[in-house]
């Protein structure tokens, strides 16, 4: 009798374990799959917010310079590069602005961001306004040359901010974007250095 009771108890415990495991499996497989996207969007910290806010303003500065170079640069290669920068960074601005809206965070203007003393936000010590004023005062290949010099510094600032996001960010999508920004802008820096050497 004792052996039978032990066998029955063991069998019952095994059945209960399998039943609980099945329930747990349903919860662990189906529920996260349905909520993973919203959970990822909701996961963010201060580093993610600052990254998105600053990178939006930074990208807007790049778009302003690239738009001017696309219209005014002398060489076809520089104009084409400027157009590619516009095409790439416009959608990234929309993406990050969308995140800020989901997170309930405001988008500060450029003046607010300037007060944050972030190394990636200026070019050779110049503000966005000063850089644009200098560009508009040039003509011919001087536009191409100065645009490339300023955009190289601008890209280096973006890489710096993206590296900080990789180290400190919590939101998976924002961290992924930071990695893409580093890869894309380092490649463009190398391209711009080549174009600059040919001018």
TrEMBL record:
Leader sequence residues: 1-22
Limits of the DUF305 domain: 48-196
PROSITE patterns: PROKAR_LIPOPROTEIN, TAT
Assigned keywords, A-Z: Signal
Cross-referenced InterPro entries: DUF305_CopM-like, Ferritin-like, TAT_signal
Statement: the UniProt record of this protein carries the keyword Signal: yes
PANTHER family to which the protein is assigned, alphabetical: SLL0788 PROTEIN
Protein name as it appears in the record: DUF305 domain-containing protein
Species whose genome carries this gene: Actinotalea ferrariae CF5-4
